[in-house]
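Reviewers of the previous submission asked for a worked example of the structure-prediction workflow described in the proposal, so we include one complete record here. The input consisted solely of the amino acid sequence. No template or homolog information was supplied to the procedure at any stage.
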Amino acid sequence: MGNRTIDDITEKFKATAQTHLDSLPLAERIADAADLMVRCLHDGGKILIFGNGGSAAEAQHASAELVSKFRRERRPLPALALTVDTSILTAIANDGDYADVFKKQIEALCNPNDVVVAMTTSDVSGAHSANIHRGILAAREKGASIIGLLSTRSVVLAPLVDVALQ
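From that input alone, the workflow returned the following structure tokens.
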């Protein structure tokens, strides 16, 4: 391998390590988010997760880890990614407004003892995350706890969630 490739890899490792160090101030909020989810599951609730694009894939991965296993065998935990049912997503988008794809699912599936995890990296003004915004507002109306995995530039969504991880 060329030195340029090794240098690039080395720089990526350094950047990743720096990201971990820069994230240390989030430890308390991460613990708060974990506490919300544990309390939800102990109280018979479920975790509903959604996002767009790469965040949709992350939502699916997170719900799979909760239902299947993470690190060890244990009972399956009730979790659902709201990004996987193409019939529901396309029906809502076709019959109404794409911005309602998560809102409608939250209205149908969410209970007050549930936790909703909203994920987006594109919220700067809220204009690029209308479906995330409406999903969060629907969860708030249902009385669910809300965790936001959000952009550091999120000025619209961060104040609407119980725990913002930016």
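The two ends are 37 Å apart (CA to CA). We consider this example representative of the routine output the project will generate in years two and three.
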